[in-house]
């Protein structure tokens, strides 16, 4: 039997999701990690893996439809890259963190000791499971709306500002291979600040022409930023 505190906790999460479950057991199922099931088989019968599978499909379709509707002029390749920016472990984990999803997870003792409630893989899987649970409790339209509302509310500005969830450097290199262009390089323009507060500026050049410039607290981060702005100028990412 669920305690009053448990019920209040689930209501709190529902408020963050902006969705009230008709069957609260679906939400509990979505929050149940396999480690908890392994240690409590006498009181619980299933973990969140099947709901995770379902939620992954819902999110994938929701994001694809969102991008198609909002960027109809973009190519299939551009939309695929943008979807990869949104639907990946790191981004989903950050959305999960934005609603403190780790605080609601049911984890086994070992996983709790290992701070599983902070692991990106567990958080992203749990978020997918929650969206899967919303789908079962309602329908596709509502479950897609729940996810996209979370994305819009907590993450959209981070993507627009160029915060790096995606490996833009690898994507840039793939684009150079596609167009058979090998004469590109990264150059350090400046290094400013103290030893513990350094800001690097990196320029990315193709045939000595600057196509992107980025800043970061390390050369690696500045190169990623430079690649992002080069791809943005080439209309490959938004």
Low-confidence stretches: 159-164
The strand order across the widest sheet is: 1-2-3
Q: Give the count of helical stretches.
A: 11
Please count the beta strands (DSSP E, at least 2 residues each). 3
Shape: elongated
> From the alpha-carbon coordinates, what is the Rg to the nearest angstrom?
21 Å
Q: Look at the structure and give the mean pLDDT.
A: 88
Q: What portion of the residues fall into strands of 2 or more residues?
A: 5-15%
How would you characterize this protein structure?
The chain is of the alpha+beta class and 238 residues long. A three-stranded antiparallel sheet has the order 1-2-3. Helix 4 (49-70) crosses helix 8 (120-137). A hairpin with a 2-residue loop joins strand 1 (184-194) and strand 2 (197-206). The termini are far apart. The chain contains eleven helices and three strands, in the order H-H-H-H-H-H-H-H-H-H-E-E-E-H. The radius of gyration is 21 Å and the shape is elongated.
């Amino acid at each position: 039997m669920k305690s009053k505190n448990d019920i209040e906790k689930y209501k709190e999460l529902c408020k963050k999701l902006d969705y009230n479950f008709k069957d609260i057991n679906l939400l509990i199922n979505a929050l149940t990690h396999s480690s908890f099931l392994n240690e409590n088989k006498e009181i619980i019968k299933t973990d969140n893996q099947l709901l995770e599978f379902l939620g992954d499909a819902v999110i994938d379709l929701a994001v694809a439809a969102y991008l198609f509707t909002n960027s109809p002029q973009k190519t299939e390749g551009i939309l695929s890259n943008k979807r990869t920016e949104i639907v990946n472990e790191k981004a989903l984990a950050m959305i999960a963190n934005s609603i403190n999803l780790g605080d609601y997870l049911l984890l086994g003792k070992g996983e709790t000791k290992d701070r599983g409630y902070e692991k990106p893989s567990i958080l992203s899987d749990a978020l997918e499971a929650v969206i899967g649970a919303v789908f079962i409790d309602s329908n596709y339209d509502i479950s897609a709306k729940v996810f996209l509302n979370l994305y819009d509310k907590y993450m959209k500005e981070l993507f627009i500002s160029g915060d790096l969830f995606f490996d833009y450097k690898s994507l840039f290199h793939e684009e150079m291979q596609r167009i058979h262009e090998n004469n590109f390089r990264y150059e350090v323009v400046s290094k400013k600040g103290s030893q513990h507060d350094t800001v690097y500026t990196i320029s990315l050049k193709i045939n000595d022409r600057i196509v992107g410039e980025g800043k970061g607290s390390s050369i690696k981060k500045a190169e990623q930023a430079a690649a992002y702005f080069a791809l943005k100028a080439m209309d490959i990412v938004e």
